[in-house]
TrEMBL record:
InterPro entries: HD/PDEase_dom, HD_GYP_dom
Protein name per UniProt: HD-GYP domain-containing protein
Source organism per UniProt: candidate division WOR-3 bacterium
Domain HD-GYP: residue ranges: 1-67
Domain of life the protein comes from: Bacteria
Length: 67
């Protein structure tokens, strides 16, 4: 599961030259306590775009019932 972050980063790096997007993809599974992946970043090291994508990546209970 944790390899999808770096795979996504490498795939998108061939299509975009916007570093903020690539940085967000790479850091959206980092946690404030440093227990995330792939780099184990903590509170002050996680960029805003990574934090935003982390919230957007949260599962929504029963979301499939809305479709």
């Amino acid at each position: 599961m944790d390899k999808h972050v770096l795979r996504g980063y490498h795939i998108l790096s061939g299509f975009t030259d916007i570093p903020e997007i690539l940085n967000g993809v790479k850091t959206h599974h980092e946690f404030y306590d440093g227990s995330g992946y792939p780099e184990g970043l903590d509170d002050g090291q996680i960029p805003l775009i990574g934090r935003i994508l982390a919230v957007a990546d949260l599962p929504v209970p029963k979301a499939d019932r809305c479709l």
